[in-house]
Design a protein that fits this description.
Chorismate lyase; 7 helices; globular
Length: 197
């Protein structure tokens, strides 16, 4: 039962995180909307429709950070593109790049319920310097990734620029929930660039 003291008055608009949570690209669509940029077009695809090597990088229940590091043979680093808070949630859109070459290897948007994390991990998240997967792995934080949809994405011009693309081409990604003790504590959309070795 909802606590009346915490119930918003009738007619109060929902938090941004509640209003968009069912969209296929959530939370990426929300981040783009707040920036005044049209979101890319996306459709859901079956895992077997995703070509290699994208399929091996996306169709699993592991975190993407170590998966990308294994594939590229080195560490990836985080470059924050935008961050904001809405209600209890913390949002950020980031670019992951290979540490030495600076090559983009993933763009992602994540919504996290900060209260679900202990203080040291929360502090690391808010510093926006380390990929989320490494923060939870190094902090031994018990959570799991649960993919809920696989995506074929037609990039918008902003995404093409981030990924160094000269012309549009289909990209692939996934939408994932972060689960801890049976509760959803976060949502992630991760998109991979066109050129993968």
């Amino acid at each position: 039962m909802m606590d009346p003291a915490n119930t918003p008055p009738a007619g109060t608009p929902p938090d941004d995180d509640d209003a968009h949570a069912t969209g296929l690209l959530y939370p990426l669509d929300l981040v783009y909307e707040r920036a005044g940029i049209a979101a890319p077009e996306a459709s859901e695809v079956a895992p077997e429709q995703i070509p290699l090597p994208y399929r091996s990088l996306l169709v699993h229940r592991d975190d993407m950070t170590p998966t990308l590091e294994r594939h590229f043979g080195g560490r990836v680093v985080l470059r924050p593109l935008s961050v904001f808070r809405s209600g209890r949630s913390y949002f950020r859109r980031v670019l992951l790049v290979s540490e030495y070459a600076g090559q983009p290897v993933e763009m992602g948007a994540i919504r996290m319920e900060l209260d679900a994390f202990d203080a040291p991990i929360r502090r690391k998240i808010l510093e926006n310097e380390i990929p989320f997967g490494r923060v939870v792995r190094d902090g031994r934080f018990d959570c799991r990734s649960e993919p809920t949809a696989f995506l074929a994405v037609k990039p918008n011009p902003e995404m093409m620029g981030v990924f160094w693309m000269r012309e549009p081409s289909t990209l692939y990604g996934r939408r994932t929930r972060i689960i801890r003790r049976g509760a959803v504590i976060g949502d992630i959309v991760e998109i991979l660039p066109l050129v993968m070795r």
